[in-house]
Amino acid sequence: MADVVRLDPPFEAAERPMLEAWLDFHRATLATKCAGLDDEQLRLRAVPPSTLTLLGLVRHLADVERYWFQWVFAGESVPPYYWTDEDPDADFNGVEEADSAEAFATWRAACERSRTITQESADLAVTGVNLRDGRPVSLRWILVHLVEEYARHNGHADLLRERVDGVTGE
Question: Is residue 4 part of a domain?
């Protein structure tokens, strides 16, 4: 994995660039937590009894990006990357034989598509349709939710990484 560039979000900015900066910060934090590990380490279920792995988090967040930005907001009809109706947790469960290079490429492509969709939106108040209940959901809500989703999972990644090889830090 290439060196990760993680920029601190600005202390002052308009709402949209602030939200975008925080989301990119958290995306880069996940990449940082995975940097320098081999496939076996990325697949390690390091915090028993949890079945979480760093690779599972990457796969999960690829599907999260796709779901909220492509399906819900942009209304694109695209399949999930990993989960299925038969195994809704396949993003986490299917890591034993998963190709980490593929997972990271998929996640990065999903992030890039999310950035494009965000940039093409005229306003944060523009809505998509929440597939779970049919209610409208704004781009603002999606950005805030993704910051929360990454922040929560980056906390998991902190613990996993420390147990994998002792590395701690932001």
Answer: no
